[in-house]
Design brief:
alpha/beta, Nucleotidyltransferase, domain 5, 5-stranded mixed sheet, 12 helices, disordered N terminus
């Protein structure tokens, strides 16, 4: 005999809306958000990381940010089904352990277990760029793509890969790390990789050398002469004001990034690339356009010249949304 009450209970459970905490841990800030299964951020919090206080203190602050996000959403933390955590470094997702997070000075830390103990819920940890790329694929600029490369350009160059609808991590939990690929093998050490040519740090380093070699630029005034403190905002102002030196260096960097992307697109026959990160957001369409043109110019075969290269749709929310959705999709495999 069919138990009607059990059927109703099962139906209610199947239709129950699921919620996750998405948490993005950076060297400076911790961002947390309550995310529903559609990728909408219902409440958020942002607090300082204070990495110098040590691992346990930072994890306490991560938990505090999570609770503040729940308060902002008007939800009890017990109504959250799972939490996702993005951290800057390779993560063994099976064990929830970050192998190395340089800017946090962490080595082999069990981040998933530590946060799970503090929040009393399942926690799924992954690399910070991986979760941002996943967020764009699941709820942002990459929706509908089965194969996608996401590239985040800021202090460094991070990237992640979606292949056949799956976030790829690889045998050593570092798949998609194009920033560390050797791009110019004949160049001096320190200037060979994609990151050493295309990151904001690389752009700033090149500008410092050129300014000190007497090339004029308004970047000196925009940084009050502190050329070691060149940030994306100052670069964007100089770029918009048609500063010749800044535009030349940034445009060359974007062209190089597009060329590197073309190699990956050719290797994997990709048709979608999403660009994010502080530099991309600051410079905007001109930067994306140069990367796109270079990538399309260098790909093979000719049919790949229709390669879609677009900017992030979620912006700063990509990591929070991606971490939350990845947690839900891992914990509840049938969630759409």
């Amino acid at each position: 005999m069919i138990n009607t009450s059990e059927m109703i209970e099962d139906t209610d459970q199947a239709q129950q809306e699921l919620f996750a905490l998405g948490i993005d841990v950076g060297g400076t800030n911790i961002q947390a958000g309550v995310v529903d299964q559609n990728g909408e951020v219902l409440g958020r919090a942002k607090i300082k990381t204070n990495a110098g206080e040590g691992y346990d203190a930072v994890m306490d602050r991560v938990a505090s940010a999570a609770r503040l996000a729940c308060e902002d959403a008007g939800m009890a933390i017990k109504s959250i089904n799972a939490a996702g955590l993005g951290v800057p470094g390779p993560v063994d997702t099976e064990r929830g352990v970050v192998a190395e997070a340089v800017n946090l000075r962490w080595t082999d830390e069990p981040v998933a277990e530590s946060l799970s103990e503090r929040l009393s819920m399942p926690v799924h940890a992954d690399n910070d760029v991986n979760v941002a790329v996943y967020g764009e694929w699941a709820a942002g600029a990459g929706v509908g793509a089965s194969e996608m490369l996401g590239v985040w350009v800021g202090t460094g160059v991070g990237s992640g890969l979606i292949l056949n609808g799956v976030l790829r991590r690889g045998a050593h939990h570092s798949a998609g790390e194009m920033g560390h690929m050797v791009f110019l093998p004949g160049a001096p050490h320190g200037s060979r990789t994609v990151e050493q040519n295309c990151s904001r740090t690389a752009i700033a380093h090149q500008l410092v050398k050129l300014v000190r070699a007497n090339h004029p630029s308004i970047i000196t005034g925009l940084t009050d002469g502190k050329l070691t403190k060149i940030k994306s905002k100052a670069l964007a102002i100089a770029y918009e004001q048609q500063d010749e030196l800044v535009r030349t260096v940034i445009d060359d960097s974007a062209d190089r990034l597009g060329t590197a992307i073309a190699g990956i697109a050719t290797l994997l026959s990709l048709d979608k690339v999403v660009l994010g990160g502080g530099l991309v957001e600051a410079i905007g369409k001109p930067y994306v356009s140069i990367v796109r043109d270079a990538a399309r110019r260098e790909v093979f075969p000719a049919s790949l010249r229709s390669l879609s290269v677009v900017a992030s749709k979620l912006g700063d929310d990509a990591g929070v949304v991606g971490a939350g959705l990845l947690a839900l999709h891992t914990e509840f495999a049938d969630v759409d």
